[in-house]
Amino acid sequence: MKRKLLAATVVASVGAAWLVAAMAQVKPEILVKQRQAAMTLQGKYFGPLAGMAQGKLPYDANIVQRNAGYLDVLDKLPWDGFDPGTRSVKSAALPAIWNEPAKFKEAQERLQSEVSRLVSVSKGGDEGAAKAQIGAVGKACGNCHEKLAQDAKRGLYVSKAAGCVGCHTETRPNAQPYAGGRALATPFGTFFGPNITPHPRAGIGRWSEQDFIRAMRLGVRPDGAHYYPAFPYTSFTKITDPDLRDLWAYLRSLPPSSRASQPHELKLYVRWRFPLWGWKQLFFSPGPFVPDPSRSTTLNRGAYLAQALGHCGECHTPRNWLGAPKKDRFLAGAKLGEKTRAPNLTPTRLEKLSNAELKDILRTGMTADGDILSESMAEVVQNTTSQLEPQDLDALIAYLRSLPALPDESR
């Protein structure tokens, strides 16, 4: 009787949050509290069990049976009632799991199955079996958390290779990374990098993983509108699905920023997005990078870094009057402004430099003669090329050397 009463208290404490959330509907702060309440209780009741299984606390069969019952009740609550645009604040769980219902359902069913077994085992009085099953419950929780943490760690590297922070962070001192505001001047007007933190209103907190992949792969917003190609989806479309998922996990782990994304300041004739559909038909070929079987693993990796993640062609390839890259002039250099040019990256220019010299330039932003790279390229070195693993930097250089030598773009 006492156990049923306590279990009812658990349900009531969490159920109250569900009721409030249902009444509030779209208030993310209420939904965050809802999630916090449930997951905090899970941690509260599993913590002592883990301590007993690890020998840190004396084993108590009554507590094991009682807490297993509480966990069983919590795991049977309607977890799919959570709003995918919210994040857990206190929990160690990364929010990516909450935004993909199928993944979360699979993880939750696995956990519920192990907790049900613990309830059954705890009634048998076998201490060894109970401790083993507590470990199984911990693994069901931990595998999910650890996997997401690993995804986010890999995603951090992907974000560096893709230079995301450069376009999505203001240039002012102490600006919050990825909160948007970076200006990009073009012949069509000035674009501003948006807030891509997981804030539910100002950022991409209400996006799903599929929304993110669609944006990167197809250049389409969650509402179906086309992105301007100032967002380099023409290159990012080649990023593989695993890398996109890892990058998504990393972005979801960032602290949210309430900074509103700044509207673009465009010339009148490009303020409508619907013509972008035609632009895509002419100049955009969506799809992930496909390795060339006739090339080595190193060259394919270098091609992937240059063409997809590093999107080198967005600056180093000249464009036509519609703003589309000239494919037959890939990496031959381009005019970026009245006084700024992106240099030719084909062997026409690079043949004068040894691999060691190229590595030094891409690691330090300084040539052997002591010249410093332009401000924009120095930032690329700081945020991207200096962060590459040694084998990736070698692959990138090898790929650039394998390109056909093209003359510099005419001034």
Can you walk me through this structure?
- By secondary structure, the chain is mostly helical.
- 53% of the residues lie in helices and 3% in strands.
- The protein folds into three domains: 2-162, Cytochrome c/b562 (Four Helix Bundle (Hemerythrin (Met), subunit A), Up-down Bundle); 167-288, no CATH class; 290-411.
- The chain is built from 17 helices and five strands.
- The strands form two sheets. It has a three-stranded antiparallel β-sheet with strand order 1-2-3, with no helix packed on it. Strands 4-5 form a two-stranded antiparallel sheet.
- Strand 4 (334-335) and strand 5 form a beta hairpin.
- It is elongated and about 85 Å long.
- 32% of the residues are buried.
Beta-strand content bin: under 5%
Q: Quote the average pLDDT.
A: 84
Number of helices: 17
Write out the strand line-up for the largest beta sheet, numbering strands in chain order: 1-2-3
CATH architectural grouping of the largest domain: Up-down Bundle
Query: For the CA atoms, what is the radius of gyration?
Result: 26 Å
- Residue stretches low in confidence (pLDDT < 50, at least 5 long) are 17-26, 84-96
Overall shape: it is: elongated
Compute the separation of the termini in Å.
Answer: 86 Å
Quickly give the structural class.
mainly alpha
Which homologous superfamily in CATH is the superfamily of the largest domain?
Cytochrome c/b562
Q: Fraction of residues in helices?
A: 40-55%
Tell me the total number of β-strands. Answer: 5
Total individual domains:
3
Taking the sheet with the most strands, its summary is:
3 strands, antiparallel
Q: The CATH topology of the largest domain is what?
A: Four Helix Bundle (Hemerythrin (Met), subunit A)
Question: What order do the helices and strands follow?
Answer: HHHHHHHEEHHHEHHHEEHHHH
Briefly, what CATH class of the largest domain? Mainly Alpha
